[in-house]
Amino acid sequence: MQKNRSPFDSKVVKYLRPNQPFQCGRPGDPCELGPTTSGRCSAPDGRCNPVPSEEKTRQRWFRAAILLTLGIALIAFSRNDFTILDPGTHSSFHSHLDCASCHDQVDLISVDFLRRGLLSQGESHATMKCLDCHVMGEHGAKPHSIAPESLSLLTDGLSDSGHPIENVACARCHEEHRPQESTRSIHDARCQTCHQQQFPSFDDGHPEFSSTYGQPKRAIQFDHGDHARKHFAEYPDRAPESCDDCHILGPDRHRMAVQPFATSCAPCHADSISGHGPTGKDRGIEFLSIPSLDSEALSQNGKDIGAWPTVGSDFPRGWSLRWIRDGMSVDTDLEALSGVELYDLEDQPDEVLAATQKMALHFKNELRIALDSDLESFIRSLVSPAEEMDVDLAQISRLSGKLPRSLLEQARASWFPPPEEQGVITPESSTEDDSSSDQNDDDLLADDDDDDLLADDDDLLLEESPPVGLAVTDRDESSITRSGGTISAIDPDKWANAGGWYFDAPSIRYRPVEHADRFIQEWATLEAKSGGKDPDSESIFQQVFGPLAAGNCATCHVGVQHDEPKVRWSPESMRPPSYPQATHFSHGPHVLSGSSATCLSCHEMAIDPHLSNDWKSISRNTCTECHGQQVQSGCTTCHEYHVGPRSHLINSARIDQLNLPQKQ
Predict the structure, then answer these.
(1) Could you give the CA distance from residue 313 to residue 2 in angstroms, rounded to a whole number?
(2) What is the pLDDT of residues 63-107, one digit of tens each?
(3) Within 13 A of 7's CA, how many CA atoms are on the CB side?
(4) Run of H or E residues at 154
């Protein structure tokens, strides 16, 4: 409504809502409904900031004049005793501070003092002084201490008026000099002044929880119902008796954590990881292998590659292919060899033979370089070029699995023996001419004396029978020998049943037998992040983490996926970030309360196996059975105002004993 003033000043101004305390803050285009009596914009989008009307301003000035008069009179009659003006004691957190630590230094008779103290205008506590100690991040003074665009995402745009969001004074919510109340205690009414969706209390009008509340995403694939119906029904003695057999309260006393693998899972799954159980893999991971090549066909076509073992693996894959890829042309060489059976090169075109020769010679050269360099250089040659610069020495150590150099030496000696060892040396050709050589008659070792100790019939060195328990074999211990399906005593796969590196004629292998093997973890994490940036990443990832890989990691760890930059191994890794997180829940007061409440008081198992989660979601009614009745249910009980990053500065001191003057 618009009303003209009296005729004597009608030419000066026209004003809106003369009988209301506030008027619209949009000059020239006021809101049609006008602000509420509490000073809030009545438009749904909160498009303006209402300002006091002229009548309201006059009232404020009148009250200020009365208070000023009373203040002057109070000071005049106080006779220099100003204890009556003492605002009160500090809170325990601020007991070491003085007035200047929080308040701006303004003169008592200045306009600023009158405006702040008597007119209730401006900030009684300087927010920037609060932020000198309370580090709240770049947007600490903004609403909820986060960037306006982030706040708009959290609130789905409900509070976004299209205007820049101004800073919020700390003193709006935190009141000092009230020892009977904590400075961190905030009344619900302060939250309701800004939030547009208002309601009386948590148990009366609070919005319902989301349909997935209480059903967090998991990094570990575990179905409580499925284990109960299938496994625990078959092995009842292995079923947990209570929740705390597998779950414990975390170190922060707020979140629940899963017991270590050795406690919660190992009794059933340790054998499948080590390769000793019915579903385990008793064969190590193929780390580096030599392909089987038709060296005879290559030689017949003028593509000689020198010595090459007759036993080898299929076409190079994983680390082996990445190792030789640098020396091959992806567009011509590898494309020409695609789908070719390298162990049978008869009738193959010249380009295939040339590419095979190039691959074989490069393989030999890379092995020579590896033996002439160091372990770090060798492992870096196997890391994806997309990730190599981001891998530090500690990661290289874990990626190497402490591979011994002697294993590479053993592989080279087996694959490419020196020229003098490539010929067959038979016992008949050993030293036939030795008997005809001239003997020195004075040689003590050739003396015919019967007392010669070395010629004694009881000489142990001439004993024909081997010592008891010593196996006699005519095989090289670096080879695999199987006869009729029976694995020999020196089968490398069986010998390495305690884990680690071993050589298996065509390949170097690594066998994990413990949970959380660092070699598997580091390579799976690295290749998962490499994703589509490297052509060999998928193959290596499947070797260490695929469904058929040793260790059976993929059976449980669903939080690790190829081409996924966020690799989540542990259940805690699926937790939401510490900020921005406006809602929090602490298990500590609930599970340690000593009441009759248990885990199943809030969590109800879903019986239907077709549901996406084995636990039902938690509704608001679950909480209101206690909160809102005999338990407090204020806004800050579950919600955090400052959702931005926070940190606390410590009063650090210089240690003079450690900062001695430099010697000349």
Answers:
(1) 93
(2) 889 988 887 887 777 665 555 556 677 777 787 888 778 776 654
(3) 0
(4) helix 148-154
**What is the tally of structural domains in the chain?**
2
- pTM exceeds 0.85, yes or no: no
* Span 279-307, pLDDT tens digits: 446 788 999 999 999 999 999 999 999 98
Examine the fold and report which residue of 505, 520, 551 is the final residue of a domain before the chain moves on. Answer: 551
Contact predicate 384/533, CB 8 Å: yes
Decide if 114 is inside a domain: no
> Hey, which bits of 217-345 come out as E strands?
247-249, 256-258, 285-289
The pLDDT of 34-52, averaged and rounded, is: 72
The DSSP 8-state label assigned to residue 639 in this structure reads B
Residue 73 lies in a domain: yes
Q: Is residue 365 part of a domain?
A: yes
- CA quadruple 247, 253, 255, 261: dihedral sign: negative
Instruction: Please report, for residues 66, 303, 415, the alpha-carbon distance to residue 300 in angstroms, rounded to integers and kept in the order given.
Output: 115, 7, 21
**622 occurs within a structural domain:** no
Token readout for 239 is 């079923």
Angle between helices 537-545 and 318-325 (to 10 degrees): 150
DSSP H helical ranges for 373-422? 375-380, 393-400, 405-415, 419-422
Host domain of residue 297:
281-416+476-551
| Final residue belonging to a domain, choices 70, 86, 102 | 86
Q: CA-CA distance, 232 to 225, in Å (whole number)? A: 10
